Queue: 2 jobs
Job 1
Amino acid sequence: MTPKHYALGTREPSEIQRPESIEALAESLAACDRAGRAVVLFGGRTLQGLGHVPERYDVAIDCTRLSRVLEHDPRDLTIGLEAGCSIAALDATLAASGQFVPLDAPRAAAATIGGTLAAGWLGPRRAAYGKPRDLVIGTTVVLADGTIAKAGGMVVKNVTGYDLSKLYIGSLGTLGAIVRANFKTLPLPAARRLAVAALPEGTRARAIGRLETLGIEPVAALVVNGFAKTIDGEDGADGRLLVLFEGSERSVEAATRELRAVIGAAGVPATRLIDRETAASFARVLDAYIEPLGNRSMTYRSYGRPSDTTPRLDAFARVAHGAKLGLETIEDVRTGDVIARLSARTVADFASRAHAFDGDRRTALSGARVIVAPQALRELLDAWGAPPAALPTMRALKERFDPAGTLAPGRFVGRI
Amino acid sequence: MQTALRDALIEALGPEAVLTAPEDLAAYAFDAYTEDRLPAAAVLPENSAQVAALVRVARKFGEPLVARGAGTGLCGGAVPTSGGIVVSFARMNRILAFDATDRRALVQPGLVNLDLSKAAAAHGLFFGPDPSSQKTSTLGGNAATNAGGPHALSYGSMSAHVTAVEFVDATGEIVCARADDAGYDLTGVLVGSEGTLAILTAIEVRLLRLPRAVRVCVAAFGDIDAASACVSAIVAAGIAATALEIMDRTIVRAVEAHFHAGYPQDAGAVLLVEVAGEASDVEASERAIALLARDHGALTWRAAASERERAALWAARKGAAGALGRIAPNYYIQDATVPRSRLPEAIRRVEAIAREHDLPVGNVFHAGDGNLHPLLIFDRRERRQVDAVGAAGHDILAACIGLGGTISGEHGIGYEKRDTLPLVFSPGDIATMLRLRDVFDPAQSFNPGKIFPQGTACVEVVAPEPTFARA
C-alpha cells in the first residue's frame, strides 16, 4: 500500500510503518514522539472520514498486523484480542463457540477492533445490547511516549482503578494507540429476522408511534429513505421501515406477528421478511452509514433523543433543499440517531454546494458531525459541529497524555 | 476549626447547612467499612450553585472535600481520611426531570436508588443497577463507585446507565458532559472515579422497560462447590439469566433467622436464579437451568409461586449482610471478581484461606458475574482475629488475582484497597491513571488518599485503623 492509501485530506505521510507486535508499535511511537514526527494510527481505514485533517502528519502506523486472538476461553464469555483484528475475524472466532459482540461496525471485513473503538462507533443495536464501551472490559494502549498501559482486565465486573478504557474509546487515536481490547461476549441468538416494509407517504409518524407499543422490542428499528443501491441492490428511494428482531425462534415469531398487526393498523401494507440472509442484509444497512457516492456526497451523523428525530430530519431536508443537494436518511427509531447523506449529480455541482450546506447547517444542526466526505473538501467542513461544554478539560487531557502533540494533532474536537 | 472558614461556608451555604460541632460531625466520620477522624465540617448543599461556591471556599482555604451519599460504602471511600469538609447530598435528593417517552431521568446525587425505580414503575420502567444497599444508597454514591448489584449480570453496572453528568470541577466551575458529546467521554471516566476527580451534582440515567415475565427459583446444593460449578455451567451454556446468586449455609441460616423467606436451611448452599423476558423464553430458560442444576447435583428446585414470594426471596438476599450482622459480632465483607469458569476454584481457595486463618466465613455473591463476597466473621475485641481478618482478606485478593481476576467488582478501592492496587496494575498503568487525576484535580482536593497507594500522592495520609462493619 502506498502513502496515497493513508492520505487524510490533501496530506500524505512520508513513512508507513506496520509493526508486528505491541512492543514494536511502542518503540515506533516513542521514536516518533522523540523526533517530533506526527503519527496517525490506522486500522481498516473505514472510519478515517471522521475528524479534521491533522495539522501535521508524518508517519502512518498501520495496526492491522496486530491481529492475534490473545485470550479466549468460551466458558468465560470473554475474549481478548489485538486491536488490528478485523471485526469479521472477531465475529467468526466467536461464532464458532456460539457467541458474539454486537459492535455494528460498517464494512466488518475491513474494519478493525481498534479503529472501531477509537472512532467511538455506535450502531443501532446498542439500544438492545449496550454501547461498545459497555462491552469492553479492558484495554491496553500505547501512549505517545511508548508507555504500555493497561486498564480493566478479563473479568466482566470490575471497578479496580480508573476505567481509562472509556477515555480511549472515541478518542480517535489522539491520546494513545489502542493495541488490545477485551470484551464480554453474548450468546448468539437462536433466531434473527429482518422485517422490511415500504412506508407509503404519510405513514411514517404513525408507524413509528406504533412501534413504541410493541411488547417484544426489536434490537433495531430504522426508517430509511434512499440508500437503495447499498441496502437493496436496486434503484428506488421509497421510505421503508427496517426492523430487526433477535432472540429465540418463538419470540421472533411472536414479534413478527405483533409487528405486522401494529404497523398494518398504521396503514403500512406489506412486510417482507428476511430470515436466511439476515446477517448479510443487516450488514448492508450498516455499510450504508459510511458508503460514499464517489466524490459527490458527504454523510453527517446527529445524535439525540428518539423523540426529537423529526425536527432534525426536517432541518436536514430544509438545509439540503436550500443548498440544492439530494438527501438520503437513516432514522434510528430506538436510539434517536439520524444519518444524512447529501449528494449532487456531479462532482463539480457537489463541490460548489457542499460548503454552503455545511455553513447553513451550523445553526440548525449544530451538533451534527461529518463522518464521510471527499478528501478534497474535508478542510472546509466543520467536522465536529459545535464544541462541547467541557472542551477545556479535553484540551488538558490531550496536553497531559500527548504533550508533544504526536498523535494526530489538530484532528479532534476543537482542533485538539 | 478556623472561624474564617466557618464564616465563609456559612456565607456560601447558609447557617443551617454547615455543621461543625463534634457531636454533629461524628455521623460523617465513617462508612460501612471504617471510621476515621472527624472532618473539620460537614455541609449540606441544596443545589449545584452552592456546591460550586463550596468548592471555591474549600480551594481558598486548602481544605479537601469528600462527597458522601448514604455512607453505605464498603471500602472507606466516603471516609475523610485527611479531614477536610464532608459534602452530604441529603438535601439534593430530587428527581429533576422524568421522560417516560425517551426513558430517561435526571436526578440529584442524593436520590436513593430504590426511589428511582419506584417512581419509574408507574410508567412500566425501572432502573437497572440494584446494589443490595439500594434502599438507602444514593445514585451519587452508586455512580462514584460504578455500583453493580445482582442484576449487573443482565443490565450492567452504573456506567452503562449514566448518559450524562453535571459536575463541579476543582476550580468551582459547573460543567455538563454527555456521553454522546463529541470529544472525550468524560461521563465514562467520572463514573467509577470514587469522588476523586470532581463532584457530581446531577446525573442523567436511562431507564429500562419492566420485563413482561419474571421467574425466581431456588436450587439447593450439598455444598458451595456444586452450586458454583452449576453457575459456571449455566454461563458457559449461554443461557440468559437476569440474576444468579449464591448463598452458603452460614448466610442462609442468618437470613432465614431474620427474614423467613423460605430458603432451605439444611443445604450447603443455595442458588437464586432469576429469568426475565418473554413468557415463552422465561419458561425455556428456567427448564434449561433446572436441568443443569439437576446435573450438578441440586437437591431441590423450587420456583417462587407468587410475586410476594419472589419479593421475599429477593428481600432476604439483599438483606443478607445485615442479617449476618445480627448474629456475628463483626464481619468483614470482601469483594473480588474472577473469570466465571474459575468460580469453583476461587470458592475453594476462599474456604481454604479462611481455615488457614481460623476464621469463620460466609459466602453470598453475584455468582453469574464471578463476583465474590466472602464475609469473614470475627470479634473486633480480639486483636488476633482483627489481624487474621486483614491477612485473610489480602490472601483472598491475591488468590483471585492469581486466577485471572481482580480486587474489586463493585465496591471500589477507596481507602481499603489502595495499597493492593499494585498487585493488579503496574507502576506504568497506575501512572497513566494518575495523568487523568492530574488533569481534573491537580491539587488532590477531592477525596484525597483514595484508590492509589500512598507515595504516588503528594498528600501523606495517616493510616486509620480499620474497624470494619459493625454489627
Job 2
Amino acid sequence: MIKRSFFALTRPRLGYDTPEPDPKEPKAIPVPSNLILLLHDPLDDARETFIKKGDKVEKGRKLHLYKDSKEYTISPVAGTIKVIDTYSDDFGNTSTYLVINTDQGLTAGTDDVKYELKDTIASADEYLRTLPGAPPLKTLADPDIKIDTIVITCADPDLLSTTHQYMALKFMDGIKEGIGVLKRITNVRKFCITIPENMNIKDEIDLAQVFRTSMIYPANLPQMILKDHLNMVLPAGKTPEDMGICFMSAEAVVSLARAYKTKTACHEKVLTVIGKQGTPYRVTAVIGTPLRRIFNAFSIHVNDHDRLVIGGPMKGFSTYTVHHPVQPDTDTVIVQDRDNIPELSDNPCVNCGKCVRICPAYIPANILVRYLEAGLYQDAADRYDLLSCIECGLCAYVCTARIPIYQYIRLGKHELLKLNADA
Amino acid sequence: MNNNKLIVSHAPFWHDGDSLFTLNLNLMIAALPAVIFGLVQFGMPALGVLALSLSSAMVWEYVITLLSGKKASIHDLDSAVIGLFLGMMLPATAPWWMVITGTFLAVVIGKMIFGGIGANPFNPTLIGMAILALSWTTLLDFDAAYVNYDFDFTALAPLAAVKAKGALAVSDLFPLNDLMMGKQVGAIGTTFGLGLIIGGVYLILRGFVRWEIPVAFIIGIVFTSFCFNLVNPDKYAAPMIHLFSGYTLFGAFFLATENSSSPVNRIPMLIFGFCAGLIILLMRNIGVYEDGTVLGILLLNLVNPLIDTIRPKALGKGVNHA
C-alpha cells in the first residue's frame, strides 16, 4: 500500500507498476478437478433449464442456461455439470454459477470443439465472448451501437497489475494479427493502441495509432485516454461506447487472433497475483479455476479477516470466498493481510479539500459527499457533478476523515439509474 | 472445503494513511515552537492557562457527546486543538473561569451545536475568543495583564500603542527583530513570530494546511498596511509591525486555515486569505479595535460558502452532445 509521503505540498502521485524487462514464463496452474463458471443469466426456478445437472460437456462446448438465452459461457474442459445455482455480486445482481467436474479420461481422448468462424462480427460474437481478456464482441456486434474506434490497451488501467503490459511485451505479433482480424470482421477503421511511456517496444506498429500513456494513475482509465489522447471529453453520464469508442485489452486481441487461427477457443487466462507482502506472481490459469488453487500453488495462506481483491486496489472488488473463479476479465488478484486493511469511518467531511485537489474530473467531492450522505442523488447529479465522476477512487484514497466517498458515488449512480428506470 | 471469513468491502482498498488524529496532532506539533516560547516568556501561569484550556475543551466535548447520546469523539483531538489554540490566544494572567468559559463557548457554541467536527460554519476558537473579547475587554488588555511582569523590552502591546499614539510616536519602541523573536507583550502563543512561521511552513510542507490561504492572507496584510502607510506614515504603522504583532501570524497559519470554515478551491482560497488580511487592516486602522484578526476572520468565514462556489467546471459538464 502506498502511504502518503512525509512532505505533501503537491498532491500524491501513484505510479503504475511495470513488469520486469524480460518477463519470465508465467507459472501454469494445473487444471483443477472442479471448475466454476459464471453465466450472466439469472436462474428462474419456474423454468426448465437447457443444461442440467449431470450433463456431459466437451471442451469448448457453448453452454446456454435456457434455450432462448442470449448469454452463454464456454466450457474450458470436458467434464460433467455438477451444480447449477444462483450467484449474486456486490450490487446484488444475480447470475448463475456452474460447477463442472473435470473428467480426466474424456479430456485426454477428445479434441476441442471446432467452431465455424466466419469473417463477420456476428460469427465471432457467437463463440468467442468468453475468451481470455473478455473481448467486447457483444458491444461490437450490437447494431444499435456505432463503434468507429477501437482502443487496444497495453497499459493496465489499475495499479499493481502488469497483465496487459506483459501481453504487449510478449505477444506483439499476436496483437498485430488480432488487429488484422478485427479489421476483417468489423467495419471499424480507426485503431489505437495505448503503450506505457517507459515500455520498450522493439518493432514498429503501423496498423494502429500509438498513444504513449503516462505512468501516473489514473492516466490509463478510459475517460483519461479519451481526454489526453483523443482530445475528446466524455459528456457527464455517457460511456465511451456512446461516443463510438470501444476499449479492448491486449489479451483479448491476442486470444481473438489465436481463436481465428485455430478455430477453437483458448481458455488460459494470464493474471498478476499479488501476495500479502506485495510480491507479484504471474500465472496462467484456466478460466473457472478457483482462486484457492492459485494461492496454494504459491503457498499464500488466506486467513480470516483478510481481503481478496479482484482487479486493482483502486477500482477492483472484493470477494467473500476463496473459491471465486478466474473469469475472462480477471487481470489481477490481490491478497491483503488483515493488518494492512485501512479502517474507514463514519466521520463527517471536515472540508480539508484533499479530494477536490486530487480529483481528475474537477468534481467538488467535499460538497458532493454531503448530498450523497443525505441520499439526495438527483441534486447531487444536477448540481454537484455526480455523473462526471470517472470512478478512479482517488478521493476515498486521500480522505482525511476516511469517508468511503467512492462507495457513496457508486451507490449514488446506482440508485439514480434505478430511479430513472422506474420513472 | 475451507471457508475463511473474509473482509468484503468496497474499492479503493488502499488509503494514504491520513486521519483526523494525525491532522490534529500535526496542528498541535506545529504550534509547539510558539507554545514553548510562550511558556518560557510568561512562566507557570501560562502553563496553567494552556493546560486548563486544552483539558477543559476536551471535557466539554466529552460532556456534550455524553448528553446527546453520541459516540465519544474526543480521540480525534479536534477539541484539543481548539482548546490549545484558545489558550494560546489568551494572556498568561487570564483567570481560570474565563478559560473555562472560553472553551465552553468555543467547543459547545462554536462547534458542537452545529453538529460536531466538520459542521461548524465559523472557526470555533474564534467564536470563543470573540465572545470573550466582547465580554471581558479589560481582562484581555495585554498592557494591563502583565503589570506585575518585568520584561527586558518595551512592555507595551504594539497594536494598542500604535492605535493610541500613532505610528510615528512608537516607531522606535518596536524594532522588527524584537517583534520577530517574540520580545513583545501579547498572548501566550502568538508573540513568537519566527516560531509561528516555522510551524506554519511545517504544516504547508506536510500538506496539512493549504498554502494559498496563509500566503494570500499575508499578502493581504502587507499590501493593505503598505497602502495605509503610504498615505499617512505618521498615523499608520508599517507592514512589518502589523505582520509580526497581535494575532496576525497565528491567524494566517492556524486560524484562517481551519478546514471546515475556509474554502477549498484555489481562487476562493486566494480571495478568502486576501480579504481576511484586508478586513483586519481596515479594522485596525479605521475601526475601533486594536487587533481585528478575530472578527476579520469570522467575517470571512461568513462569506466562505459564497466564495467557494467559484470552482472549475467538472469534466464532461456543458459539453455539446455530438
